[in-house]
């Protein structure tokens, strides 16, 4: 009964047996490598590096994608692994040289994640390769054996990943984005039906809206694992982020349009026709994200946008009557939907590797796609070399902690100083709260494992026994221990390590004692550094970066309004500042979701905060393409109205920044319908020519949609 209960518990914690399959692959490869090197070839160096290379790549490396992709990443990472081992081996002659190398390697390896967050999955493994090689004995002549052992372990592990009990392929971000596109397209069709047949199937429209909302929520970066989220600096990941933002805006504008459904059907409505074309384009574009699908041609959408723009300024009358305010509002909102749908389609082209056409009217949003990956990475690195970069803080913290641990292990002449740095790497987190959380299982598990392994070594002193049980301890440490919890994992890992070193260098029960002392020292160093250096973690950086991000967004909005009024040049610099601060707030946001937050911690709807900023840049660029700078110059009444609206919006952005920083909880703007928003400008519409009226309607509608996005920011 006890065994059945334990087995049931493990299965509940590991649906699909993914962890157990991974542990089985690791166990098989590690056992084959260790046995063949230690007992076949008779080389302790080959066995040590082969075993720890397998463990580092198979357990500490968190790699995304299906099995062939993970195998390819492992093999292509070998040159970097060789460089780290060579550097560690050459610097092992001096404690201070090794510690200096640890400081540099620790920072560079951790900070490399800003260029491609998928490298974060390899960071811990890369750190371990340098750490292992940087300890005495100083034997440069053994470098070929060290490299041979690591290469053997990684190559065999890559082969096992590809061919041995492969894991089922998880749902990728592109698949989620394609599903969201299909759901949004279905809602666009329903919104179009609501304009032409408002009384037909209102429940079906509500169902489609709820379904689309769920699918849109699933593509938020924070709801996807960091190794799967498109947060790299490369052109394709950046395009996917723009696609997600555009799809959110398509849905938000469609919801606004559906909320202003006319009371009577209007069979020939330009907005409905345009929405249906947007739905077809969005649905077809989502399918392009699947392998082998053809590229979507945008001719139909461009033609529909052109027809809507031609018909829009005049309305249905002859231009002498007062404009139809609800009609103007619906047409303006439908054009905004079409703009974002086209941005989504062009973004998918970039994300799937297609080249942009030179005459593409929207390619300015994707200008980065014309630059080399190295230039994009450099821009990303440069953006993160800032005092408020969460990546910079965590990289410096980790490098300093590992360097201090290396100095302590060297000065104290610890026989197994490697364990000190491994404990520091295991305990240290991005916030003091997370470090404290990792402290207890590390200490308790190590004590329990040391007691068990020390007792075994007092009773059993034959290395052959530990050789026989090696596969069992491997499976327990990386399979069962991971499922049972951190304390069990640390305890079983301690038993595994003492059993391995008992075969390499018999020291008896003192090996368990050394393991306990080394781990406790590493834990102390990790805790002290975690408390001393940026202890509040990414949450503090996120609040500060979000406040500055919203302030920059408010500046960009004011500059855009001044530009359309002819009082200032285009807001290119202001929009660039928003993009730069967007990089930092995105980074802080991703790291924030990896941290632990207590129930008393005041949460903020960060998805809404980021969406409010994402709404500004593409929205302003789309607005200025159809409403060029100076288009409302010479209309004083409109200028006064828009300046007043921009001032109110500026106050709302400031208040949203206070909410994000945790200093205020006052109510933000209440969402309003589009037609209701235009009621206040109705007295002005007869004063301007039709094209000026169109510009005023679009600019005011954009400001109203920005206010709606701010209204979604609420403390949780």
From TrEMBL:
Cellular localisation: Cell membrane
Residues in Integral membrane bound transporter domain copies: 407-529
Transmembrane segment boundaries: 41-61, 73-90, 96-114, 398-422, 442-459, 464-481, 516-534
UniProt xrefs under Pfam families: FUSC_2
InterPro entries: Memb_transporter_dom
Membrane topology: Multi-pass membrane protein
Keywords in alphabetical order: Cell membrane, Membrane, Transmembrane, Transmembrane helix
Membership in a protein family: Belongs to the YccS/YhfK family.
This protein's name: Membrane protein YccC
